[in-house]
Specification:
The complex is a heterodimer of chains A (236) and B (245). With 236 residues, chain A is an alpha+beta fold. Chain A folds into two domains: 44 residues; 168 residues, Oxidoreductase, molybdopterin-binding domain (Sulfite Oxidase, Chain A, domain 2), CATH 3.90.420. Chain A has six helices and ten strands. In chain B, 55% of the residues lie in helices and 2% in strands. Chain B is built from eight helices and two strands; from the N terminus they run E-H-H-H-H-H-H-H-E-H. The chains are: A alpha+beta (236), B mainly alpha (245). At the A-B interface, helix 1, helix 2 and strand 4 of A face helix 2 and helix 6 of B.
C-alpha cells in the first residue's frame, strides 16, 4: 500500500515535471503569453498606485550628479539641432488639442518655469540627481486646450526617430516637465538640448530627449524601447 | 509503537515547493537585472561596502536572457512569490505553527549545544522537538528575509508612488542594496538547508512531499551529524517518543 502510494506519487511528479518541460520546449509562446498577461495586469496595478500627490523627494542638501550624470542617445553621434538646415528649433504641441502650439525656446522660457531637484531612475538600476528647469507638461496641455480625446501623449524627438508614448495621468504629474535647463544652465547636447522630457515618475527611457513634438492622442503608440520588449508603462 | 507521524500539512508542502520555483525564478531574473548595472554606487560615486563593485553575476546563474526579458519574468513571478508567501504565513499564523519557527528564550543556548554536537564537542544529539534550534532560527530568518525582499522590492519598483516604503530603507540606492543582500543571504541559507537535509536528514524529504515522517529515523534518534549515521536505525526507541494523542 505504502509502496503503491509512493510509486504513484513519484510517477505523477515525474509526469508533471515532464509535461511542463515539454510544454516549455515545444511552445515557448505559452510562457511568452503568460508574461504578457502579467505585464497587462501590472500596468493596471501601477496605474492604480499612481497619485499626483505622491512626489519624488530629494533632500535640499543632497548633491547632484553634475557631469557624472550619464549621457545617452541612439544616433551614432550626439544629435545637435542645426538651424542652417532645419530652421529655428520649435516644439510642436498638437493632436487632440483646440489650439496647437509651435514654441521656440524663447516662447518656452516665457511660460511658467518650474525648477526641481529630483531623481532620474534608469531601467539599468542606477539613479542620479539633477536640478531640472522647464515647463510642466500639464501647463502645456492647458495652454493648448486638450480635448476629451487626449488619453495618451507621444513625446518625439530628432534623435533618429526616438519617441515614447505615455499615459495621460503620468504626463500630467506636477513633476513631469519639458526641461530646457539642468543644474542652472541651458541643456547641452549630451543631455537632450534644446529641450527634453524629464520626470521622476517614469524610468529614464520614457523621458524623450531632443524633443520636437508633443502629440496628444486617443490611443497609445508604443515607443523606441517599448517596441523592443521593454515595459511600455515603466512607471516608478 | 507507531513512529511514523504526519509532520507537514498539505499547505506547508505545497507552498514549500511552489516557493522553490518562485525563488529560483526571482533570484535568477533578479541577478540578470542586476547585471545591467552590477554595482550599487550612483554614477560618479563610490560604494565601499561592496568589494565586488562592477563585477557581474556569471550569466549561467541568471534567467531571462536580457534586461527586458528578465524584468518581465521578475514582475510576473513576484505575484507567485507573494501569493504563495501569504498563504504560507497565513497558515502559520492561523494554525499557531509559527511557534515552530519563531525563536524563544533558550533557543540561543540550544543552538550552541547543536553547534557543539556538530563540531564533535559533545557526543549525543541534544533533545529537540520538531526542529532543532539551528533549524528554527534558519527557517525564521528565511521568512524574515522573504518579507525584507518583498518590501525592498516594492521600494525599488515604485520609488515615487510608494516613496514611504523606499524611505524605510533610507533611499533608492540603499533599498536596492538591501534587496540584493537579502537575496544573497536567502540563497545562502537555502543552500545550507539543502546540504543539511541531504547529509543529516534525507528522511525529511518524505515529510515535505507526502507529509509523513518516521521519528525512529530522526537525526536525534540516529545521533546524526552531517554525513554521520545517515543510514543508522534508531539505537533504542526514539528518544522522547510518544504516540500521537
Amino acid at each position: 500500500m505504502t509502496i503503491d502510494r509512493r510509486r504513484f506519487l513519484t510517477l505523477s511528479a515525474a509526469s508533471i515535471t515532464g509535461s511542463i518541460l515539454a510544454a516549455c520546449d515545444k511552445n515557448p509562446q505559452a510562457a511568452q503569453s503568460l508574461l504578457q498577461l502579467a505585464e497587462r495586469g501590472n500596468e493596471r496595478v501601477e496605474a492604480g498606485l499612481f497619485r499626483h500627490t505622491a512626489m519624488n523627494h530629494v533632500a535640499a542638501d543632497a548633491p547632484v550628479a553634475g557631469p557624472n550624470f550619464p549621457k545617452y542617445f541612439i544616433s551614432p553621434k550626439v544629435p545637435v539641432w542645426d538651424p542652417a538646415t532645419n530652421g529655428v528649433w520649435r516644439l510642436e504641441v498638437s493632436g487632440a488639442v483646440r489650439r496647437p502650439l509651435s514654441l521656440t525656446l524663447d516662447d518656452l522660457q516665457k511660460l511658467p518655469r518650474v525648477t526641481q531637484k529630483v531623481d532620474h531612475f534608469c531601467v539599468e538600476g542606477w539613479n542620479a540627481r539633477a536640478t531640472w528647469s522647464g515647463v510642466r507638461v500639464s501647463d502645456l496641455a492647458r495652454a493648448a486646450g486638450i480635448t476629451a480625446d487626449a488619453q495618451f501623449v507621444d513625446f518625439a524627438g530628432f534623435d533618429k526617430g526616438y519617441h515614447e508614448s505615455w499615459d495621460m495621468e503620468s504626463a500630467m504629474h506636477p513633476q513631469t516637465l519639458v526641461a530646457y535647463g539642468k543644474d542652472g544652465y541651458l541643456l547641452t547636447p549630451g543631455y537632450g538640448a534644446p529641450a527634453r522630457v524629464h520626470s521622476p515618475v517614469k524610468l529614464g527611457y520614457k523621458n524623450t530627449k531632443y524633443l520636437t513634438r508633443v502629440v496628444f492622442m486617443p490611443v497609445r503608440n508604443g515607443g523606441f524601447w517599448s517596441d523592443q520588449g521593454y515595459e511600455w508603462y515603466a512607471g516608478t | 509503537m507507531a513512529t511514523v507521524v504526519k509532520r507537514n500539512h498539505w499547505i506547508v508542502r505545497l507552498t514549500h515547493w511552489v516557493n522553490v520555483v518562485a525563488v529560483i525564478l526571482m533570484a535568477g531574473s533578479g541577478m540578470r537585472i542586476f547585471n545591467a548595472y552590477p554595482k550599487f554606487a550612483r554614477p560618479g560615486e563610490t560604494f565601499p561596502l561592496n568589494p565586488w563593485e562592477g563585477t557581474p553575476i556569471p550569466a549561467w546563474l541568471t534567467l531571462g536572457g536580457w534586461l527586458a526579458g528578465a524584468r518581465h519574468w521578475h514582475f510576473a513571478a513576484m505575484w507567485l512569490l507573494v501569493a504563495n508567501g501569504l498563504l504560507y504565513l497565513g497558515y502559520l499564523f492561523f494554525r499557531g505553527e509559527w511557534r515552530d519557527i519563531v525563536p524563544r528564550r533558550g533557543d540561543a543556548r540550544d543552538a550552541i549545544e547543536m553547534l557543539k554536537f556538530y563540531l564533535f564537542v559533545r557526543k549525543d544529539h541534544p533533545r529537540q522537538g520538531k526542529h532543532n534550534a539551528l533549524q528554527k532560527s534558519t527557517y525564521f530568518a528565511m521568512a524574515v528575509l522573504g518579507i525584507v525582499l518583498v518590501l525592498s522590492g516594492l521600494a525599488i519598483w515604485k520609488p515615487v508612488s510608494l516613496w514611504f516604503i523606499t524611505a524605510l530603507f533610507v533611499n533608492y540606492k540603499w533599498a536596492r542594496f538591501a534587496h540584493f543582500l537579502a537575496m544573497a543571504l536567502l540563497l545562502l541559507l537555502s543552500l545550507v538547508h539543502v546540504f543539511m537535509v541531504l547529509t543529516v536528514d534525507p528522511y525529511a524529504l518524505r515529510a515535505i512531499v507526502t507529509g509523513w515522517y518516521d521519528r525512529a529515523r530522526s537525526p536525534e534518534a540516529r545521533n546524526a551529524r552531517p554525513f554521520y549515521h545517515l543510514f543508522t536505525r534508531a539505537r533504542t526507541a526514539a528518544p522522547g517518543e510518544q504516540p500521537p494523542a
